[in-house]
Design goal:
The complex is a heterodimer of chains A (about 475) and B (about 475).
Chain A lengths: L6 H9 L5 H14 L6 E4 L1 H17 L9 E5 L26 H8 L3 E6 L33 H8 L5 E5 L6 H7 L2 E4 L20 E5 L2 H11 L29 E5 H4 L6 H16 L3 E5 L7 H16 L18 H12 L2 H14 L5 H24 L2 E5 L15 H5 L6 H6 L3 E8 L5 E8 L4 H13 L1
Helix pairs in contact in A: 2-3, 7-16, 10-12, 10-13
Chain B lengths: L3 H4 L2 E12 L38 H13 L3 E2 L2 E2 L2 E4 L9 E4 L6 E2 L2 E5 L5 E13 L3 E3 L8 E3 L6 E7 L6 H18 L11 E11 L9 E6 L2 H20 L7 E6 L4 E7 L9 E2 L6 E2 L2 H9 L5 H10 L5 H8 L2 H11 L5 H19 L10 H12 L5 H14 L5 H7 L8 H14 L1 H8 L6 H11 L6 H12 L2
Parallel strand pairs in B: 13-14
Antiparallel strand pairs in B: 1-11, 1-12, 2-6, 3-17, 4-5, 4-16, 6-8, 7-8, 8-11, 9-10, 12-13, 14-15
Helix pairs in contact in B: 3-4, 6-7, 8-9, 8-10, 10-11, 13-15, 13-16, 15-16
The chains are: A alpha/beta (about 475), B alpha+beta (about 475).
Chain lengths: ~475, ~475
C-alpha cells in the first residue's frame, strides 16, 4: 500500500475502492511495528483503532461519516483522551488515566478521526530534541543517529514515517514547528487561543498551543477547522469565528508583502545551507512579483531570555499539582509530608523538568520577581508590539524554522543553553501569540530536512494556509 | 490579670480579615456543586482535583455576590479584574496554588458602620474585598497514621474582606463581625455561620504606647471559630502583648493560633518561616471585565439593606429608632414585618406584636421566623380584631394568639367565636355584671361616692374578671362611672 499524503487522497482512494479505513489502520499498525525502534509511540490502541475503523467504514457506506473519516491520527502524550493513559512522558504521572477528553480531541473524534495511539515527547513538553522523555529518546526516521526535534518528537516522526496521517502536538516555544522542520513535514502552531487548551497538559499556559503535524497544508487547514473555536472550558479561548480554512486555500490575486528579518538571517548560529534555502525561496517570491523586504528586529536577543523566564515561571506553578497526594507517582520512601513532596517530585520528574521548575521558582521569588518576571513581562510586551507593527505593513514574516538541521543524539545534552538555542526562531510566535507554520523546504547535503517558517498576524491562519500551499507548490 | 491603669497606657491596633463562603450553586472555577454535609469527596470534579489538562472558569454568580458586598460597603468596584496564583504546597490544596486576586481586588475601599459602646456609630474602613477559592480539608483520624483529605470544600467561592488597622478593641471586633454576618445575610450571599466555618476571621493585632507614632509588631491570630472566641482571643492577645512589652520583651511578628479550651494563643510560625507565595497573574484565566451594564444590573437587583429598611421603618411607618433597630436586626424578621405592614395600617401595633408575642414565641422555641406558623396576614387579622374592639389586646395576645398558634389553619375570628373570646360591648350584658359588682362592695361604693375616685380601678378589675376579660373596657368604664354616680 502506498503512503497517502493528504486526507483528500485517502478519500479518493476509498471512493474508488482502493482502500478502506480498516486497511489504512492495518497499514499504519504495520509501520508502527516495523519502525518500533524509532520509539515514536508510548501506547498503540491496536484493537480500538481496528474497531473504530470498522465503524467508520460502515458510516462511509451509509453516508453518515464525519469530515475526518479516513484520517488516522496520533496524539502527543500531553492531550487528554478519556479512559486512556496520560503521562506527559513522565514518571510522575505513572498509571494516570485521563477521565475526560480535551476539546480538540473530542472534536476530532466527533468527526470520525481514528486515534491510533499516544506519542512519545519530551517530559511535560520541555525540550527540543525529545531526549527528555522518561521513556527514552525518539529517533529521526531520516537518520536514526539524529534527534527528531522536540518536544513533540514522537508526533513528528509518526507522520514522517507513515505511522499515522496526522498528529496533534503542542507548541509552547516551537515544539511543533521545530520537529516538523527536522522531520520534513508541515507543522502548524495557530494563534494563541484559537484552539481550546482544555485537555492539554499545561507547560506554560500563556504560550501553550495545540498544533498539527501533517504532510500537506490541506490537512493542517482541515484539522484546524475542526478543532478550533471558542470553548466554555477555556476562558482564554478566542471568541473569533472559525473560517472554513480548507475551502480557502487559493492564493490571493494581488502580490503578497513579505518581510524577512535581516538580523535573523545574519545570526551567528544559522547553518549556511538553511540560510541559502531561505534566500532562494525569498528570491523566487520576488521573481514572482511579490514584495520582499528586509527589516530589522532589534529585540532578537531578548526573545529567548524572556521566553525562558516567563515559561519557566508558569511551569513551576503549573507543575505544583504533581505532588503525590491525589494521583500518579508517590515515593514509597517518604516518611512524612515534607519528605513525600521532596522525594516524590525528586524521583518523579526528570532533570530538565526539575531545572525549569527551579528556574521558574527562582524568578517568581519575592526578592527577584521584579528583576526577572516583571521585566520579562515588559519585554514580552515590547516584542509583541514590535512584531504586530511589522505585521501591520506586511502579510507575513518568512524566516528559517531552526538554526540547524537535525542534530545528533547527545550532541547538546551537556549544555542546556546550547539546546535552548534550537528554539531561537520559533519562540517569537509564542511570545506574541501569533500563528506560524513550518513547511518542508528541501534538504541539506546530508539529506536532512530543512524547514521554512511563515508567521502571520493573529487569526490570519486562512491567509497563512493559502500562502503556504502556494509556497509548497512552488 | 492586667490592671486597667497599665492597660490604658496602650493603644490597640487591630485589622481583621474575614472570609465568607458564598452561597452559590457551584464552585468558584468549576461546575461541581457546593453542598455541605455530603460524604467526603463526592462534590468534586477533574477541575476541583486539579487533574492535568483542566482549566478554571470564573463563576459569574460568585462575582455578582462579591459585587453586592462591595456595593453595600460603598467600595469602588474594580472593572478590570486579573486573577492571581498564590503558590504553596499543602495536601488540601489540589493544584499547589490558590486562584485568588492579589493586585486587583474586586472591591477597594468602603466601610462597614458599627454601633459603638457609647451608642454612636463608627465606620470601619475596608482596605479591599477580593475573590478566591477555598481549600479542601485535611482530616487526621484518631489512631490513623495517614492524613485523609476531603476535597468537597475545595474550590468553594470565598470573598475575603480586609479592614484597615482601625479596630480598637475586642468588643469592636465582635460587633464588626456581627455586622458582617447581618450584612451577608441581608445580601443573601453567605449564611454567616461562624461555627460551621462559612464565616471565618483572622486578626492582626498590635499594641503601641498611646500617643506613639510607631506601630507595634503585628501578630496574626487564626483559628477563632466563633464570635465569642474572636473576642476572647483578641482580649488574650492584647494582654499578652502589653504584659510582654511591660516586661521589656520584644514582640515578634508571627502567626499564632487560638486554643479555645485554654483561652490562650500559641505560636504557629514566625515571620522568618513565612511562605513566599510567589504571586503572579493566573495565565489560565482571561481578565474579567465588569461592564457598566453588568454593574448596574447587580445594583438594580440589590436586596434591601438593613439601614435602608431602618430608615423606611422610622420615616414611613413612624416607628421609634429603637423599635426600627430591633426589627431590622435580623433580615427575616425585617422582611416579615415588611409584609405585615402591607396587610395592616396600624404599624405601631404591628411593631408591638412583632417585638412582643411573635418574638416571645420564637425565643421560647428558639425558632427562626421562617419557621413561624402564622403568616403575616394572620397577625394582621389579630391586629384588626383588636382595632375594631372585637377582642381586647390582652385577650388577643394571651388567649387567642396561643390558640391560633396551635391551629394556624383556622381563622382567628372563628377561634374567638368558638372559644367565646369576643369582646362584650352590649350594655345589656355588661350592666348586670356592673350591678353585681356594686352590690358586692357596698362600703367601697360609699367611699367612691365620698370622693375616692381612685377606686374605679378596683371596680373595673372586678367587672373584667367576672366577664372573663371580654367586656369592652371603654364601654365598661363609661357604664361603671354612670352606675357609681347615680
Amino acid at each position: 500500500m502506498k503512503a497517502y499524503t493528504s486526507l483528500s487522497e485517502v478519500k479518493d482512494a476509498i471512493q474508488k475502492g482502493e482502500t478502506s479505513c480498516q486497511q489504512l489502520v492495518e497499514f499504519y499498525l504495520q509501520n508502527i511495528e516495523k519502525k518500533k525502534h524509532l520509539n515514536a509511540f508510548l501506547e498503540v490502541y491496536t484493537d480500538e483503532a481496528r474497531e473504530q475503523a470498522q465503524q467508520v467504514d460502515q458510516k462511509l457506506k451509509n453516508g453518515t461519516a464525519g469530515k475526518l473519516a479516513g484520517m488516522v491520527v496520533g496524539l502527543k502524550d500531553v492531550l487528554c483522551h478519556q479512559d486512556h493513559g496520560l503521562q506527559s512522558s513522565s514518571h510522575i504521572l505513572e498509571g494516570f488515566i485521563s477521565q475526560f477528553s480535551g476539546t480538540a480531541v473530542q472534536k476530532l473524534l466527533e468527526e470520525d478521526a481514528i486515534v491510533i495511539g499516544r506519542q512519545n515527547c519530551d517530559e511535560f513538553a520541555m525540550g527540543s530534541s525529545n531526549e527528555n522523555s522518561a521513556f527514552g529518546p525518539v529517533l529521526n526516521d531520516a537518520d536514526n543517529t539524529r534527534v527528531p526535534g522536540g518536544s513533540s518528537g514522537g508526533s513528528a516522526v509518526a507522520v514522517q514515517a507513515d505511522m499515522c496521517l496526522v498528529s496533534l502536538g503542542s507548541d509552547t516555544g516551537g515544539s511543533v514547528r521545530q520537529p516538523a522542520a527536522f522531520c520534513g513535514i508541515v507543522g502548524l502552531k495557530p494563534t494563541y487561543g484559537r484552539i481550546s487548551r482544555h485537555g492539554l497538559v499545561a507547560y506554560a499556559s500563556s504560550f501553550d498551543s495545540i498544533g498539527v503535524f501533517s504532510k500537506s497544508v490541506e490537512d493542517s487547514a482541515l484539522v484546524l477547522e475542526v478543532i478550533a473555536g471558542a470553548d466554555e472550558y477555556d476562558s482564554t479561548s478566542a471568541r473569533v469565528e472559525v473560517p472554513a480554512y480548507s475551502q480557502a486555500l487559493q492564493k490571493q490575486d494581488k502580490p503578497y508583502r513579505i518581510a524577512y528579518i535581516s538580523n535573523t538571517l545574519e545570526s551567528e548560529g544559522l547553518n549556511s545551507e538553511i540560510k541559502a534555502s531561505v534566500e532562494e525561496k525569498l528570491q523566487w517570491l520576488k521573481s514572482e512579483g511579490h514584495t520582499v523586504e528586509a527589516v530589522e528586529f532589534p529585540l532578537l536577543d531578548y526573545l529567548l531570555p524572556s521566553y525562558y523566564i516567563l515559561s519557566t515561571a508558569e511551569a513551576s506553578s503549573n507543575l505544583s499539582r504533581f505532588d503525590g497526594v491525589k494521583y500518579g507517582y508517590r515515593s514509597p520512601n517518604a516518611t512524612n509530608l515534607e519528605s513525600m513532596y521532596k522525594k516524590t517530585r525528586s524521583e518523579g520528574f526528570g532533570a530538565e523538568v526539575k531545572r525549569r521548575i527551579m528556574l521558574g521558582t527562582f524568578v517568581l521569588s519575592a526578592s527577584y520577581y521584579d528583576a526577572y518576571y516583571t521585566k520579562a513581562q515588559k519585554v514580552r510586551r515590547l516584542i509583541k508590539d514590535a512584531t504586530d507593527k511589522l505585521l501591520s505593513s506586511y502579510d507575513f514574516i518568512v524566516l528559517p524554522t531552526t538554526p540547524t538541521t537535525a542534530f545528533r543524539l547527545g550532541e547538546h545534552t551537556a549544555d542546556p543553553l546550547e539546546m535552548y538555542l534550537a528554539d531561537l526562531f520559533t519562540v517569537q510566535a509564542n511570545l506574541c501569540g501569533l500563528p506560524a507554520i513550518s513547511l518542508p523546504n528541501g534538504t541539506d547535503k546530508e539529506g536532512l530536512p530543512i524547514g521554512l517558517q511563515v508567521v502571520a498576524s493573529a487569526f490570519a491562519e486562512d491567509k497563512m494556509f493559502a500562502f503556504s500551499k502556494y509556497l509548497m507548490e512552488a | 490579670m492586667l490592671n486597667q491603669e497599665i492597660r490604658d497606657k496602650y493603644k490597640v491596633v487591630i485589622g481583621l480579615e474575614v472570609h465568607a463562603q458564598l452561597l452559590t450553586q457551584s464552585k468558584m472555577y468549576a461546575s461541581d456543586p457546593v453542598e455541605y454535609g455530603n460524604l467526603p469527596n463526592t462534590n468534586i470534579s477533574v477541575i476541583t482535583l486539579g487533574h492535568p489538562g483542566t482549566l478554571p472558569v470564573v463563576n459569574k454568580r460568585a462575582v455578582e455576590y462579591a459585587m453586592r458586598m462591595g456595593i453595600a460597603c460603598r467600595s469602588e468596584i474594580t472593572r478590570y479584574n486579573i486573577f492571581d496564583r498564590k503558590n504553596y504546597f499543602y495536601p488540601d490544596l489540589p493544584k499547589g496554588y490558590q486562584v485568588t486576586q492579589d493586585k486587583t481586588p474586586i472591591c477597594r475601599g468602603g466601610f462597614i458602620a458599627i454601633k459603638t459602646k457609647e451608642g454612636g456609630e463608627k465606620q470601619v474602613s475596608l482596605t479591599r474585598i477580593h475573590m478566591e477559592e477555598d481549600s479542601g480539608k485535611s482530616m487526621h483520624l484518631e489512631g490513623d497514621v495517614d492524613t485523609l483529605v476531603d476535597f468537597n470544600r475545595a474550590g468553594t467561592p470565598l470573598i475575603e474582606i480586609v479592614t484597615e488597622p482601625v479596630v480598637e478593641s475586642s468588643e469592636e471586633a465582635y460587633v464588626f463581625l456581627q455586622e458582617i454576618r447581618r450584612l451577608v445575610r441581608y445580601l443573601d450571599i453567605c449564611d454567616g455561620n461562624m461555627e460551621e466555618g462559612s464565616l471565618r476571621c483572622d486578626a492582626n493585632i498590635s499594641v503601641m504606647l498611646a500617643g506613639s507614632e510607631v506601630y507595634g509588631k503585628k501578630v496574626e491570630v487564626k483559628n477563632m471559630n466563633s464570635f465569642r472566641n474572636v473576642q476572647r482571643a483578641i482580649e488574650y492577645e492584647i494582654e499578652r502583648q502589653i504584659l510582654a512589652v511591660e516586661a521589656g520583651e520584644k514582640i515578634s511578628s508571627e502567626t499564632r493560633t487560638f486554643d479555645a479550651t485554654t483561652g490562650t494563643t500559641i505560636s504557629m510560625r514566625t515571620k522568618e518561616e513565612l511562605n513566599d507565595y510567589r504571586y503572579f497573574p493566573e495565565p489560565d484565566l482571561s481578565p474579567l471585565v465588569i461592564s457598566d451594564e453588568w454593574l448596574n444590573s447587580v445594583k438594580e437587583q440589590m436586596p434591601s439593606l438593613p439601614w435602608e429598611l431602618l430608615h423606611k421603618f422610622v420615616n414611613e411607618y413612624g416607628l421609634s429608632e429603637y423599635d426600627a433597630q430591633v426589627l431590622t436586626d435580623s433580615k427575616n424578621i425585617a422582611l416579615y414585618f415588611e409584609e405585615l405592614c402591607s396587610q395592616t395600617r396600624n404599624y405601631k401595633a404591628a411593631a408591638n406584636w412583632m417585638m412582643g408575642p411573635v418574638k416571645g414565641y420564637l425565643n421560647e422555641l428558639t425558632l427562626d421566623i421562617t419557621n413561624f406558623p402564622l403568616k403575616p396576614a394572620q397577625v394582621a387579622e389579630l391586629i384588626e380584631l383588636v382595632d375594631s374592639n372585637k377582642v381586647s389586646f390582652s385577650v388577643a395576645s394571651q388567649k387567642l394568639y396561643p390558640l391560633l398558634l396551635q391551629q394556624p389553619q383556622q381563622k382567628a375570628i372563628a377561634i374567638a367565636e368558638a372559644e367565646n373570646l369576643l369582646q362584650e360591648s352590649n350594655e345589656d350584658t355588661i350592666l348586670p355584671i356592673i350591678e353585681d359588682v356594686i352590690a358586692a362592695w357596698p362600703e367601697k361604693v360609699e367611699e367612691y361616692r365620698g370622693g375616692k375616685k381612685g377606686l374605679l380601678g378596683l371596680f373595673m378589675g372586678e367587672v373584667m374578671k367576672k366577664s372573663q376579660g371580654k367586656a369592652d373596657p371603654k364601654k365598661t368604664n363609661q357604664l361603671l362611672r354612670e352606675a357609681l354616680e347615680k
